Inverse folding.
DNA sequence: GGAGTCGCTGAGAAGAACCTGAGAGTAGCC
DNA sequence: GGCTACTCTCAGGTTCTTCTCAGCGACTCC
């Protein structure tokens, strides 16, 4: 668990969200992904926390009880901090202000999101905005390659087309290579947090993935009956 | 996004604008485009900032609470600096002074503008006014050529007529060749900041562009379903 | 070796994403 | 004032994607 493959370990995040359930979900999983997480549940608390803690990135719900997310950012930037932001917005948010969010290297994720989605965006924004490029956008495992920016996947140099969900699942497996992942765990990370189906969807997508990326020897995606799945080289 | 293709990296800009929203919009995106940006929210502050910081170019709203933009320029030039300017004006500004701006190497952009438009003008003015020719006015990608000054576009040497929006979109794609651009990102950069339509307009214009510039092999404009669009050579 | 459980996969329905033709409205031009 | 070119919206069609269900095979445990 400690050596989470994610290379952004140690980046300081400030998560701002008023719904306690979502806040708990976010802070627990981001912490687990290796980030140094602090939290705030209101806009004004967020502005203060940003001053004190100087986070490397802010995850910010645009709908807050006191100030809205855009006000928070303005106040934070007036006080000199130039911190990148990943916004959380409602799906239908046709709100005027949502336009323009991608301008300063920032990004946004619409609720309900998946944790995989959110952490991928966080990694991408950190990659773009921090001078020293820390985490490469390309993941590799054995002869598998996955480019997070272009969404391209190769097996043994051969280009493979994946659907968005297949892509997210493979990325999650690769980020956690050699670690056994239960179906519940995969469901929690790769699917939106409001997904109400059952485990079988994971089996289905594992099946799709195998057909597309795991037809050649050696097989990389292994089933551990009653336990879960793992991406690893055989002979282990 | 890190290596923003724009070659004007490092030029020092002073942005003068009293509307905090627009100022934030401008400074965030110009900074992200690689400029070294400082800001002022009033005419007098601008004059001082120009003395201190000696910017290579000033982006200046003509409507300011204290002095108007032309006064600001006069004061700045009395103190000896001959800094080029890109003015921001209201759409209906038929003001005599605005015309004739292009004579001195300066230029203007009418509000509401698109960021593509503004950064293109900034690049053009810097190109004209700085001795060392830095950024060429002609962009090329594969057998595509686009001349920023004459607004001419060629595919395989063949002249192609584009509408203004088609031209801006293609320029944005070319400046970001091989980088995946989401529809939101394209909307934010290519369309005016007050545009209130939805993503479909991007699909429409991509369709127009394809019909005009991408009918021959190899295809250069690619759709990444669920992700965005990218300009690139196949076989990658 | 039989019953029950677990996992795999094909089929298909529902929905989402994307493309494009048609047309209304508008701005610019002669 | 009329013409043209352009922008933007809408809706229908197409393709791709997601998710469910059910049947079958494989494994486990008694």
């Amino acid at each position: 668990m400690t050596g989470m493959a994610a290379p952004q370990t140690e980046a300081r995040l400030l998560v701002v969200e008023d719904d306690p359930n979502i806040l708990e979900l976010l802070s627990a999983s981001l912490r687990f992904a290796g980030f140094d997480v602090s939290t705030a549940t209101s806009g004004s608390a967020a502005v203060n926390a940003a001053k004190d803690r100087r986070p490397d990135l802010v995850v910010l719900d645009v709908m807050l009880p006191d100030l809205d997310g855009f006000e928070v950012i303005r106040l934070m930037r007036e006080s000199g901090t130039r911190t990148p932001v990943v916004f959380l917005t409602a799906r239908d948010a046709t709100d005027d202000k949502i336009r323009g969010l991608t301008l300063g290297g920032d990004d946004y994720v619409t609720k309900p999101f998946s944790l995989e989605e959110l952490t991928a965006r966080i990694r991408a924004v950190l990659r773009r905005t921090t001078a020293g490029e820390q985490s490469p956008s390309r993941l590799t495992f054995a002869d598998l390659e996955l480019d997070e920016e272009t969404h391209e996947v190769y097996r043994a140099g051969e280009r493979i087309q994946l659907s968005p969900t297949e892509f997210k699942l493979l990325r999650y497996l690769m980020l956690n290579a050699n670690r056994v992942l239960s179906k519940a765990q995969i469901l929690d990370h790769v699917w939106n947090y409001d997904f109400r189906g059952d485990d079988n969807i994971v089996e289905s997508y594992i099946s799709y993935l195998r057909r597309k990326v795991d037809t050649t020897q050696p097989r990389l995606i292994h089933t551990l009956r009653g336990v879960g799945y793992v991406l690893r080289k055989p002979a282990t």
User: Anything to note?
Assistant: The domain at 138-231 of chain B is CATH 1.10.10.10 (Arc Repressor Mutant, subunit A). Residues 200, 203-204, 206-207, 210-211, 223, 225-226 of chain B lie near DNA strand C (CB under 10 Å from a C1').
